[in-house]
From TrEMBL:
The keyword Transit peptide does not apply. It comes from Pipistrellus nathusii (Nathusius' pipistrelle). InterPro entries: Adaptor_Complx_Large_Subunit (IPR050840), AP1_complex_gsu (IPR017107), ARM-like (IPR011989), ARM-type_fold (IPR016024), Clathrin/coatomer_adapt-like_N (IPR002553), Clathrin_a/b/g-adaptin_app_Ig (IPR008152), Clathrin_app_Ig-like_sf (IPR013041), GAE_dom (IPR008153). Pfam families: Adaptin_N, Alpha_adaptinC2. The keyword Nucleotidyltransferase does not apply. This is AP-1 complex subunit gamma. It comes from the Eukaryota.
Length: 786
């Protein structure tokens, strides 16, 4: 006997009237018990009411899986009221993960053939919502027949179901190709919108379909021209004065796909795109959406040069819009265009710079990225000044990107060395803790190569250090410069700066202050200690104070600093006659390209012990990884590089054995290891001559697709007989359409010169989907390990 239970309306009222969550659970558990009892008793007349209550319980987040089979029974029922609730339950309770969903295939097939519109509509909605690949293959013929039905209601639902089928089973494209051409003559907006969506899906998944539908470009152009002129279609689809913006946007997207890399199709739509761009009202969001889609189509096809300038000018007008969303999409689109249409985007540089002052963080970040991309040799002074002003007031999460961008722009477009040095010093003064890891090395190399600016640089750095010792990269560069050119600081002969009288005691006191400061990093103390040691050969006074400071750090808890102090003490005690030669000024370094700089750094690794190597302020940016567990090879003992003699005598020999110039390594061919949906990964190799067991791999990620690749992470693993050092990447976003690539450096030590096996794991987001790829690279060139 069926137990008495609540009606759906009464159940809703009782659940909403529950004072606590416990009361709500009690009501639901009691009613679920009644529903189960009713299902067991098999009451056919009230089964749909019980399932309706169960669906409401499911929508509240409570388990309702025991109603799945009841959905199948209701779908098979001849009564429409049962079918309606049954199909609704199937859409909510069933999906591809449950095998039970395959049991309704035959019921859907029968209902599609019934001839009753309401029942056919329910079956089509269910199939388009939860139809699996197997169901789509079985029911494709029935859906194709319904595409030619007289009723627009059925044709619209059948088209949407066909879209779902193509997404699930792309090989069904040939089934729906013929009927799409007929549906393009539709006058019903809903059917036409669904048809355009279906053709778009077909073109994206089938090259044959793309070639086939390029023949209908004139017809699509005529449809859109009719929409723009507001004749031939009903005004009931007008939104804010724009005739059916949804249909216009979908047609523009399809035209963009058909005109990409096709001259004839692009030529046939140029006039129409110009008409849409000039006649669309942008006072409302609907018009702005159509205009933005027009801009994307113009820049993606082979359009005329004047049309591309018009598109950039439209985006420039978007930057003046009061809507933040419109300004954001304008900045994002201009960032994509800055490589291909640089001069046109440059005209809107003042407006872009104004967007830097936006209080919205997402807008200011996009404006910063675009501003950095607009910097060139002709505007580097003005743009750098604007960016430095932004750096003073920007949020902390933007400071690192802004500082790094200014440094890169200055390195590429610096008009003079002095301007370059002044720019870096100002950035280090304002945001020293946020700069890139290589900023210290780049500035020391720049100053070392500018012999005429040594006196100017050491005075500027000394003044900056005297005012603030909290910016660690600035302190490191200043300590290095004072150690190298301290004699020029004391001479006071620099004409480019204000007169500055500095005493030896003041210089020594400032370096001791750096050593004693609690904010100084161990690397910074290493720079300061080395500077004191070098000043012992450049100052004319007594070195007792320097010797006392050095001896104090001989018992320092930091091992690196302690070893450095012990070595310096040994120099004073046993090798005082060699101290001046060992601590002489560093030779001038010729600045080359990035590849040459990398070779110089690698060839001098392990030999430069006096000067503290520039280390990142964030230790996690570069870590030694032992990731054998990602590989399936046999476990081996980890082998370390050859030991270096740590005795004072051996250290001095290494100090004097500095290479004069890097040797040119033999070229190693590049290797493409990954390609998917436009994302490509290439490996380039360098083996520094000074360290033959070291291999430097540069991973370069490029993106030729339409969508940006975001949250890009590349991880690597090698067997335990190797040592791997994975450096920080240049970014985590690979811009679309061949934008600036993302690079990452891998340093692999191979002491046994064994064949190299490399395993890579890529994680990224593309077109809104999260992707993870793991693959092994076994075809590395022989030159990488022999």
């Amino acid at each position: 006997m069926v137990m008495s239970s609540l009606k759906l309306q009464d159940l809703i009222e009782e659940i909403r009237g529950a004072k606590t969550q416990a009361q709500e659970r009690e009501v639901i558990q009691k009613e679920c018990a009644h529903i189960r009892a009713s299902f067991r008793d098999g009451d056919p007349l009230h089964r749909h009411r019980q399932l309706a209550k169960l669906l409401y319980v499911h929508m509240l987040g409570y388990p309702a899986h025991f109603g799945q089979m009841e959905c199948l029974k209701l779908i098979a029922s001849p009564r429409f009221i049962d079918k309606r609730v049954g199909y609704l339950g199937a859409m909510l309770l069933l999906d591809e993960r449950q095998d039970a969903h395959l049991l309704i295939t035959n019921s859907i097939k029968n209902d599609l053939s019934q001839g009753i519109q309401a029942v056919q509509g329910l079956a089509l909605c269910t199939l388009s919502t939860m139809g699996s690949a197997e169901m789509c293959r079985d029911l494709a013929t029935e859906v194709e027949k319904l595409l030619l039905e007289r009723s627009p209601y059925l044709r619209k639902k059948a088209v949407l179901t066909a879209v779902h089928m193509i997404r699930k089973v792309p090989e069904l494209s040939d089934t729906f190709l013929p009927v799409c051409a007929k549906l393009l003559h539709e006058r019903h907006h809903g059917v036409l919108l669904g048809t355009i969506t279906l053709i778009t899906e077909l073109c994206e998944r089938s090259p044959a379909a793309l070639k086939h539908f390029r023949k209908v470009v004139p017809q699509l152009v005529q449809i859109l021209r009719t929409l723009v002129s507001t004749t031939g279609y009903s005004t009931e689809h007008s939104i804010s004065g724009v005739s059916d913006p949804f249909l216009q946007v979908q047609i523009l997207r399809l035209l963009r796909i058909l005109g990409r890399n096709h001259e004839e199709s692009s030529e046939s739509m140029n006039d129409l795109l110009a008409q849409v761009a000039t006649n669309t009202d942008t006072s409302r969001n609907a018009g702005s959406a159509v205009l933005f889609e027009t801009v994307l189509t113009i820049v993606d096809i082979r359009s005329a040069a004047g049309l591309r300038v018009l598109a950039v000018n439209i985006l420039g007008r978007f930057l003046l819009n009061s809507d933040k969303n419109i300004r954001y999409v304008a900045l994002t689109s201009l960032l994509r265009l800055v490589q291909s249409d640089h001069s046109a985007v440059q005209r809107h540089r003042p407006t872009v710079v104004e967007c830097l002052r936006e209080p919205d963080a997402s807008l200011s970040r996009r404006a910063l990225e675009l501003s950095l991309a607009l910097v060139n040799s002709s505007n580097v002074r003005a743009m750098t000044q604007e960016l430095q002003g932004f750096l003073e007031t920007c949020p902390l999460d933007l400071r690192a990107d802004c500082a790094s961008g200014i440094l890169l722009a200055a390195e590429r477009f610096a008009p003079t060395k002095r301007w370059h040095i002044d720019t870096i010093l100002r950035v280090l003064t304002m945001a020293g803790t946020h700069v890139r890891d290589d900023a210290v090395a780049n500035l020391t190399q720049l100053i070392g190569g500018a012999q005429e600016l040594h006196a100017y640089s050491v005075r500027r750095l000394y003044s900056a250090l005297a005012q603030d010792i909290s910016q660690q990269p600035l302190v490191q560069v200043a300590a290095w410069c004072i150690g190298e050119y301290g004699d020029l600081l004391l001479e006071g002969s620099c004409e480019e700066t204000e007169p500055l009288q500095v005493e030896e005691e003041e210089v020594l006191a400032l370096l001791e202050r750096v050593l004693q400061s609690h904010v100084s990093l161990p690397a910074t103390r290493g720079y300061a200690l080395t500077a004191l040691m070098k000043l012992s050969t450049r100052l004319r006074g007594d070195n007792n104070r320097i010797r006392q400071v050095v001896s104090i750090y001989g018992s320092c808890l930091d091992v690196e600093l302690q070893q450095r102090a012990v070595e310096y003490n040994t120099l004073f005690r046993k090798y005082d006659h060699m101290r001046a030669a060992i601590l002489e000024k560093m030779p001038l370094v010729e600045r080359g390209g990035p590849q040459a700089d990398e070779e110089v750094k690698e060839s001098q690794e392990g030999t430069r012990l006096l000067e503290p190597a520039p280390v990142p302020t964030e230790p996690q940016a570069s870590k030694l990884l032992d990731l054998l567990d990602l590989l399936d090879g046999p476990s081996e003992d980890s082998q370390q590089p050859p030991p270096v003699d740590s005795s004072p005598e051996g250290t001095l020999i290494h100090l004097l054995d500095l290479p004069c110039a890097p040797l040119t390594p033999a070229p190693i061919p590049n290797l493409k290891v990954f390609e998917r949906e436009g994302l490509q990964l290439n490996l380039s190799f360098v083996r520094p001559p000074g360290t033959p067991t070291l291999l430097v791999i540069t991973v370069t990620a490029t993106n030729a697709s339409e969508g940006d690749v975001t949250h890009f992470i590349c991880q690597a693993a090698v067997p335990k007989s190797f040592q791997l050092q994975l450096q920080a990447p240049s970014g985590d976003t690979v811009p679309a359409q061949g934008g600036l690539p993302v690079t990452q450096v891998l340093r692999i030590l191979n002491p046994n010169k064994a064949p190299l096996r490399l395993k890579l794991r890529l994680t990224y987001n593309h077109y809104g989907q999260s992707v993870q790829e793991v693959f092994e690279v076994n075809n590395l060139p022989v030159e990488t390990w022999q």
